[in-house]
Design brief:
Elements: H1 7-16, H2 19-26, H3 30-44, E1 49-51, E2 56-58, H4 60-85, E3 92-98, H5 100-117, E4 121-127, H6 134-137, E5 141-145, E6 154-161, E7 163-167, H7 169-175, E8 189-191, E9 196-201, E10 204-209, E11 214-215, H8 219-227, E12 232-236, H9 237-246, E13 250-252, E14 261-267, H10 275-288
Parallel strand pairs: 3-4, 3-5, 8-11, 8-12
Antiparallel strand pairs: 1-2, 5-14, 6-14, 7-12, 7-13, 9-10
Length: 297
């Protein structure tokens, strides 16, 4: 009897609280997850999970088993990573997460090129504007932007991005061009995930709470609204390259541009970072801060 059968499935369900999510993490069907855990419960002679139509939770026996199995699986994964790192060719599977629009626009092309260069690498990118728990979600790497909250994660700076306030020429002709951040209160503002805009005044950071009739958690949608002449928008510069070069948008309040936001690669502590993940981090560093590559740590 294979004593390890069902352990991976059990741990995945315990961490995701879902048979479906566990199957997605492991790359197998929900039915297979259910079968393996049922067989494990039969072998152990106890119930490990409470199952309802809405959620899955651990029994006391399940909690005890999970506490013992998670470190064992971590050790197994660590051993596999160490052995894999001794190979000359990059290979293996890694999972990363990133904000949706940044992932779509900046990371996806780099990840696709990386996988094309290293055919034995299997990569999965989970795009979410929520800061996912790397351990719980089985993620090897997270790309995060801006100030990092205190956490146990290790972080490495990849580069930075600028925030720019812009508007269409048609809107500025109607509403006038703001000359100072105090003028923003008299303008329509297009909001993304926050109603706090960042600036720098006299060398010091300043924030302004803005109001607007248009709000969307997609930077692409905010960009489109700005091009349609609906108001001012503050967006990362990488969204705006084509619109600015074509003249569909122009920058305003450039004298008050805030300090750039840092871009970070974050990964779990106490886990070996594979050669594949390290190589991809270097690809990102070269793309986001090429000048910094002259002084690698």
């Amino acid at each position: 009897m294979a004593k390890w059968e069902g352990i991976n499935e059990f741990v995945a369900v315990a961490e995701t609280e879902s048979f479906t999510a566990a199957g997605q993490r492991l790359g197998i069907s929900t039915a297979q997850v259910s079968r393996q855990i049922s067989a494990l419960e039969v072998r152990l002679g106890c119930q490990l999970l409470y199952r309802t139509t809405r959620r899955v939770s651990l029994t006391e026996q399940g909690r005890q088993l999970y506490q013992h199995c998670r470190p064992l699986l971590d050790g197994l994964e660590e051993a596999q990573r160490l052995v894999s790192d001794q190979q000359d060719v990059l290979r293996g599977r890694f999972r990363l997460t990133a904000p949706v629009n940044f992932g779509e626009q900046r990371l996806a092309p780099l990840l696709a090129e990386f996988c094309a260069d290293y055919p034995e690498v299997q990569a999965e990118m989970v795009l979410s504007n929520q800061r996912l728990d790397l351990i719980q979600e089985g993620l090897d790497l997270a790309i995060r932007i801006g100030e990092l909250p205190d956490s146990s994660l290790k972080a490495r700076r990849l580069g930075s991005r600028e925030l720019v306030v812009c508007a269409s020429p048609a809107y500025l002709q109607r509403a006038g061009t703001p000359q100072d951040i105090g003028d923003i209160a008299r303008h329509r503002c297009l909001l993304g995930t926050t109603d706090i805009w960042r600036f720098r005044v006299g060398g010091q950071p300043r924030t302004v709470k803005v109001n607007g009739a248009f709000r969307c958690n997609s930077g692409v949608a905010v960009l489109e609204a700005a091009q349609q002449g609906l108001g001012l928008a503050q967006l990362p510069a990488h969204y705006l390259e084509e619109a600015l070069s074509s003249g569909r948008l122009v920058t305003v309040l450039s004298a008050f541009t805030p300090e750039p936001e840092d871009i970070w690669a974050c990964y779990p502590p106490n886990r070996h970072v594979t050669a594949t993940v390290r190589a991809f981090i270097e690809v990102l560093r070269a793309a986001f801060d090429p000048a910094d590559m002259t002084s690698k740590p």
